[in-house]
Specification:
Elements (H helix, E strand, L loop, with lengths): L46 E2 L6 E2 L11 H18 L3 H12 L6 E2 L3 E3 L2 E7 L7 E6 L7 E5 H4 L7 E7 L5 E7 L7 E6 L15 E4 L5 E7 L5 E8 L6 E5 L6 E6 L5 E7 L4 E7 L8 E4 L7 E6 L2 E6 L7 E6 L9 E4 L5 E8 L4 E7 L2 E7 L6 E4 L7 E4 L9 E7 L6 E6 L4 E7 L11 E9 L5 E9 L10 E5 L16 H4 L4 E5 L9 H5 L7 H16 L8 E6 L1 H12 L6 E5 L5 H5 L20 H8 L14 E7 L8 H13 L6 E6 L10 H18 L18
Parallel strand pairs: 33-34, 33-35, 35-36, 36-37, 37-38
Antiparallel strand pairs: 1-2, 3-5, 4-5, 5-6, 6-7, 8-9, 9-10, 11-12, 12-13, 13-14, 15-16, 16-17, 17-18, 19-20, 20-21, 21-22, 23-24, 24-25, 25-26, 27-28, 28-29, 29-30, 31-32, 32-34
Helix pairs in contact: 2-11, 6-7
Amino acid sequence: MNTRLFLLTTMSVITVTFSSPAAEPASAPKLDPDAAKPPAAARKEKIVGLHGDKIEDPYFWLREKENPEVIAHLKAENSYTAAVTAPFREMEDGLYREMLGRIKQTDISAPYPQRGYWLYQRTEEGKQYPIYCRKKGKLDAPEEIVLDVNELAKGQKFMAVGSFVYSDDNAFLAYSTDINGHRDYAFHLKNLATGEEVKTPIGKVSDVAWAADNKTILFVSEDQAKRDYRVWRYTLGEEKPTMIYEEKDELFNVGIDRSRDRKFLFIGIGSSRTTEFRFVAADDPKGEWRMLAPRRNEVRYFPEHRDGIFYIRTNDGAKEFRVMTAPVATPDVKHWKEFIPAKAGVTIQDFDAFAKHAVVVERAEGLVGFRVTDYDNRASERIELPEPAYLAASEFNAEFETGTFRFKYESPVTPPSVFEYGIASRSKKLLKQVEVLGGYDPARYLVERVRATAPDGKQVPLDIVRKKDVPVDGSAPAWLYGYGSYGISIDPAFSANRISLLDRGVIYAIAHIRGGGELGEAWHEEGRMMTKRNTFTDFIACADFLVEKKYTTHDRLVIQGGSAGGLLIGATINLLPDVARVAILNVAFVDMLNTMSDATLPLTTGEYIEWGNPNNKAEYEYMKTYSPYDNIAAKDYPAMLLYTSLNDSQVPYWEPAKFTAKMRATKTDKNPLLFKINLDAGHGGSSGRFDRLREVAFEYTFGLAALGLVDGAQAPAADAGAAR
C-alpha cells in the first residue's frame, strides 16, 4: 500500500563506553542561526483555494522542480544548514562511527525453505546493499548468488529492489529496481542458469507474480499519478503484454498475488475502506478471471485458499474482522460461513493458511499475537510472547506443507529475532538474532507501557524506554515519536542507533495516537477525516504526560515524525508551539491542503477517504483548520529541522521547502530553522545502509545540539565491565 509512511530506519548495534561528560564549558559550540545568512525564498504572487476561498501562496513556485531557481534555492538551504551545524561536525562523525561500530557488517539472515531451496540474504563489510543467495536442497550445499545489489548499484546514486519473485521451477527471477527514489521500478528478468538478463517488452511495474507454467508473468502498472491501476499478462516470447484488468475508480488501486498453496492467482482491488478480489487458477493464466465477491462500500475482505475452500478475513458484520469460508465453486457472499468469529477487544489482522493448520494474527491492547488454529475442531493455541511492549509479525513462511510457523520478534531492548514455532511440540526455537556489537546488555534498559489521558478521556498508549539509571525527576531529556495515520500501527521496535540517545541519558517514547491502528479499527476511525484533530491532541497529551510524570520537561523535549507523522508535528507546533524545545520533521506532509486539492499528484485521490476531499466544502474547511503550512503564524516556535528528498513521490520535496520558507518569514523567535534535502533520493532517504546511517547521525546531532547537549559526542559512563 502506498501511503505517506516514513519510519525511522532501525539498524543493529551497541554502545561504546565513555567517561562522564564534564560541565558544559563556556566555549561549547551552539546552534547559531546567525552563523550564515539564511535563504529567503522569493515571494511570487499566487492565489489558491476552493469554494471562493482566496489564500495567498507566495511560495507555490517552489513546485517547479525543473526551474534552476528552485534548485539553486534548495542548494542554498543545504549550504545554510551546513554552516549552522559546522561546529558539530565532529560530534556528528562521532555518532556515525559509534552507530556503525554496533553493526555486524558481514552477516546473514535466517535461511528459509522455498520449493527445494534455502533462500537468504547476506551483507559484507563495507558494502551498502544486500546480496540475495540460495542453496539447493540443504544448508551445506554450495552457495549460489542470485542477485548482488551492490553490483546493480555501481554507477547509481540510488538503488532499491522492489519485486523479487522466483518462477515455480526456480529457473527465473523476476525483479524490479528503482534508481532515483521516485518509485519508478523497472522490470528485469534473469535466467538463473546462465545469469543473463532476458529481454522483455515489460517496462515499469509496481507488482509482479508468476503463473504456474513458469513462462507467464502477471504485473501491475501505474497511471500518471502513480496509482496502480492496470494488470497485465505476459508470456515469454510474446511481442507485447496483454492488459487483463483496468480499474477506473481513482479511489482504488490494484495488486497481483498468489495463494500460499500456489493454486490461485488473485487480482486485489482496494481502497483504504473497500476491497474486491478476482481469481483464476494459477495453472490456467489465460483462463477466465472470476469475481470472488463484488465490492460493497466500507466492506473489506482478503482471501486465502486451502483444499477447495476460500478462507476470507473480512470486516463484514465484524468491525474488527472475522474469518469466513466459501467454496471455490460458489464464492459469493451468500455462501459465506463463519469459521472464526469476531472477539471483543481483538482485531484479526491476518489469516495465514497452511495445509494442516492456520495461524491467526491478532492485535489486542495494541500488541500483536499469534494463535495456531486447528481446521477441524477450531481449537487454538496462543504463542506466548514475553515483554510488555514489542513488535511481532509473520516471517517468511513460503511452504504450504509445513509443521512450523516462523515469526519475527523484537522490542525496544531486544534485537530483531526470528523464531520458529513447532506446531506439534508447541515450542519455539530462536533461529537468528541480530548481533549488536560493543557489549550491548539489554538488562541496562527499562521498557514501560503507560497510558496518557487525552482531552476527551481516551487512554492513549505510550511506550517508554530508558536506561535504568536515568532519573525520573524531570531532569532528563526526552525524544517523543509519533505517526497516527492510515490505521498503521507503529510497534515498538528495536533500534541499535537509538542506543546512542539512551546512553546519553535521553528517554525515548513512542505515542500510539488515534489515526493509527494500535487499538483497532475504531482507533483509526477516531483519527481520520472529520476527527483528525484527535491525532494532534492525543500527541500533546502524551507530551504532557511525560512532563507530569517527571520523565522530562517541555524545555528538554524533542518531538519527531515523518511523512504523515510530519503533518502531526507541524500541526502540533502550530497548536502549541511550546510543547517541545525541538521539532524534527522528516519528508513532512505539511502542505496538505494544496496537495489534497491537486488530483494529478500521487496518492491524492486515493486519500480522499483518509483526510477528506477538498471539493467538499465542509471537508475543505476542516482540513484548513490544521493544515500545517496554512496555519503558520507570527509567534515563537521550537528549533526545527526539516529533512526531505528531491525525488520523493509520496510527499513532494516542495511541501517542507514551502513550509520552511513561510516559517522563516513569519515566526518571531530566534531558534534555528534548518532544511536539508537529499538531491539523489526518495521518500525513505538514502538507499545505502551507511548513507542512511549518516542521515540518522545528522538528525541525532541536531536534536542533541538543539537541546544544548553539546557534550553529546561523549556518552555517560556505562556500567562497570562493559566493553570499550
